[in-house]
Protein backbone atom coordinates (compact mmCIF):
# COMPACT_ATOMS: atom_id res chain seq x y z
CA UNK A 1 0.00 0.00 0.00
CA UNK A 2 1.39 3.39 -0.99
CA UNK A 3 1.89 6.00 1.70
CA UNK A 4 -0.07 9.02 0.52
CA UNK A 5 -0.11 12.07 2.72
CA UNK A 6 -2.92 14.57 2.36
CA UNK A 7 -0.80 17.07 4.29
CA UNK A 8 0.52 18.81 1.19
CA UNK A 9 0.32 22.58 0.84
CA UNK A 10 -1.88 23.71 -2.05
CA UNK A 11 0.53 26.65 -2.43
CA UNK A 12 4.01 25.37 -1.54
CA UNK A 13 5.34 28.93 -1.28
CA UNK A 14 3.04 29.48 1.71
CA UNK A 15 4.48 26.63 3.80
CA UNK A 16 6.84 28.84 5.79
CA UNK A 17 4.11 31.37 6.57
CA UNK A 18 1.71 28.59 7.62
CA UNK A 19 4.36 27.07 9.89
CA UNK A 20 4.93 30.45 11.56
CA UNK A 21 1.17 30.94 11.89
CA UNK A 22 0.85 27.49 13.50
CA UNK A 23 3.54 28.33 16.05
CA UNK A 24 1.88 31.69 16.79
CA UNK A 25 -1.50 30.02 17.38
CA UNK A 26 0.05 27.31 19.55
CA UNK A 27 1.72 29.99 21.65
CA UNK A 28 -1.58 31.89 22.03
CA UNK A 29 -3.29 28.69 23.19
CA UNK A 30 -0.46 27.68 25.52
CA UNK A 31 0.28 24.49 23.57
CA UNK A 32 4.01 23.61 23.85
CA UNK A 33 4.48 22.99 20.11
CA UNK A 34 8.07 22.68 18.92
CA UNK A 35 9.82 22.37 15.59
CA UNK A 36 10.22 18.66 14.98
CA UNK A 37 8.71 15.84 17.01
CA UNK A 38 5.52 16.61 18.93
CA UNK A 39 4.34 13.09 19.70
CA UNK A 40 4.18 13.95 23.38
CA UNK A 41 1.19 16.25 22.77
CA UNK A 42 -2.36 14.99 23.03
CA UNK A 43 -4.79 14.84 20.14
CA UNK A 44 -6.82 17.50 21.93
CA UNK A 45 -3.83 19.86 22.07
CA UNK A 46 -2.93 19.34 18.42
CA UNK A 47 -6.55 19.58 17.34
CA UNK A 48 -7.05 22.84 19.20
CA UNK A 49 -4.16 24.40 17.26
CA UNK A 50 -5.52 23.27 13.90
CA UNK A 51 -9.07 24.24 14.75
CA UNK A 52 -8.10 27.70 15.94
CA UNK A 53 -5.95 28.22 12.83
CA UNK A 54 -8.97 27.47 10.65
CA UNK A 55 -11.17 29.78 12.71
CA UNK A 56 -8.70 32.67 12.38
CA UNK A 57 -8.25 32.09 8.64
CA UNK A 58 -12.01 32.09 8.08
CA UNK A 59 -12.40 35.28 10.10
CA UNK A 60 -9.60 36.93 8.10
CA UNK A 61 -11.18 35.89 4.80
CA UNK A 62 -14.60 37.14 5.89
CA UNK A 63 -13.07 40.51 6.80
CA UNK A 64 -11.28 40.68 3.47
CA UNK A 65 -14.45 39.80 1.56
CA UNK A 66 -16.50 42.38 3.44
CA UNK A 67 -13.87 45.08 3.02
CA UNK A 68 -13.62 45.39 6.80
CA UNK A 69 -10.66 46.50 8.88
CA UNK A 70 -7.64 44.28 8.66
CA UNK A 71 -6.96 42.22 5.60
CA UNK A 72 -6.27 38.95 7.37
CA UNK A 73 -2.92 37.23 7.01
CA UNK A 74 0.05 39.41 6.27
CA UNK A 75 3.20 38.42 4.42
CA UNK A 76 5.07 37.08 7.44
CA UNK A 77 2.46 34.52 8.47
CA UNK A 78 0.86 36.44 11.29
CA UNK A 79 -2.73 37.51 11.39
CA UNK A 80 -3.58 41.17 10.94
CA UNK A 81 -6.61 42.36 12.90
Overall description:
This protein has 81 residues and is mainly α. The protein contains two helices and two strands, in the order ααββ. Strand 1 (72-73) and strand 2 form a beta hairpin. The protein is globular, with a radius of gyration of 14 Å.
How many individual β-strands? 2
User: What is the typical, i.e. mean, pLDDT?
Assistant: 85
β-strand percent reads under 5%
C-alpha Rg (nearest Å):
14 Å
Q: Count of DSSP helices?
A: 2
Record the strand order, biggest sheet. Answer: 1-2
- SSE class: mainly alpha
Spatial shape? globular
Largest sheet: 2 strands, antiparallel
Span between N and C termini?
45 Å
Contiguous low-pLDDT stretches (5 residues minimum) are none
Order of helices and strands: HHEE
How helical, in percent, are the residues?
Answer: 40-55%
Short synopsis of the structure:
This protein is mostly helical and 81 residues long. The chain has two helices and two strands. The protein starts with 14 loop residues before the first helix and ends with a strand.
Question: Which properties best describe this structure?
Answer:
globular; 2 helices; two-stranded antiparallel ribbon; 5% strand; 48% helix; 81 residues; mainly alpha
Topology:
Blueprint: H1 15-29, H2 43-66, E1 72-73, E2 79-80
Antiparallel strand pairs: 1-2
